[in-house]
TrEMBL record:
GO terms for molecular function: thioredoxin peroxidase activity. This is thioredoxin-dependent peroxiredoxin. Belongs to the peroxiredoxin family. BCP/PrxQ subfamily. Residues 13-164 form the Thioredoxin domain. It catalyses: a hydroperoxide + [thioredoxin]-dithiol = an alcohol + [thioredoxin]-disulfide + H2O. The keyword Disulfide bond applies. Keywords: Antioxidant, Disulfide bond, Oxidoreductase, Peroxidase, Redox-active center. One of its GO terms (biological process) is cellular response to oxidative stress. InterPro entries: AhpC/TSA (IPR000866), Peroxiredoxin_BCP/PrxQ (IPR050924), Thioredoxin-like_sf (IPR036249), Thioredoxin_domain (IPR013766). GO terms for cellular component: cytoplasm. Thiol-specific peroxidase that catalyzes the reduction of hydrogen peroxide and organic hydroperoxides to water and alcohols, respectively. Plays a role in cell protection against oxidative stress by detoxifying peroxides and as sensor of hydrogen peroxide-mediated signaling events.
Length: 164
């Protein structure tokens, strides 16, 4: 298990504790759920809004590394609160290789502690913090990254996931 320090873990998540269950509609049809990945390591990356500059770069980075994640036996899904129709367009437009889940109810992002108050140009609002959670094959939180910077992040996550 790869540790994390308390400054990088959302209050709702504790390394070593069970990851909160989820079941979301997936871009392209079907669903993604924690239960469907039982026994397999899982990377869940949370992104604020589909088809924006940073979110597109992040999705493309994870998609480019999907073959390496597959070789390591690690599944990857991206989650935002965008409607499934927007996720479908985002996935198709950029030919994304990773699964995308739509959490319009915000139940998952709240359970994972990534629905936070944000400030932009002096205005505060609620939104999804760019964060990533690595869940071990036992369904427990193995590592958490908060306030993610996109450049190089997917590579860091791959390294941590393959070390499980």
């Amino acid at each position: 298990m790869v540790p994390t320090d308390s400054s990088t873990a959302p209050a709702a998540l504790v390394v070593g504790e069970p990851a909160p269950a989820f079941d979301l509609p997936a871009a392209g049809g079907g669903r993604v759920s924690l239960a469907s990945f039982a026994g397999k390591p899982l990377v869940v990356y949370f992104f604020p809004k589909a088809d924006t500059q940073g979110c597109t770069r992040e999705a493309l980075a994870f998609s480019a590394l999907k073959p390496a994640f597959d070789r390591a036996g690690v599944a990857v899904i991206g989650v935002s609160a965008d409607p499934i129709s927007r996720q479908d367009k985002f996935k198709a437009k950029h030919d994304l290789a990773v699964a995308l889940g739509s959490d319009e109810t915000r139940a998952m992002v709240e359970a994972y502690g990534v629905w936070v108050e944000k400030s932009l140009y002096g205005k505060t609002s609620m939104g999804i913090e760019r964060a990533t959670v690595l869940i071990g094959p036992d369904g427990r939180v193995a590592r958490v990254w908060r306030k993610v910077k996109v450049d190089g992040h997917a590579d860091q996550v791959l390294a941590a996931a393959t070390a499980l």
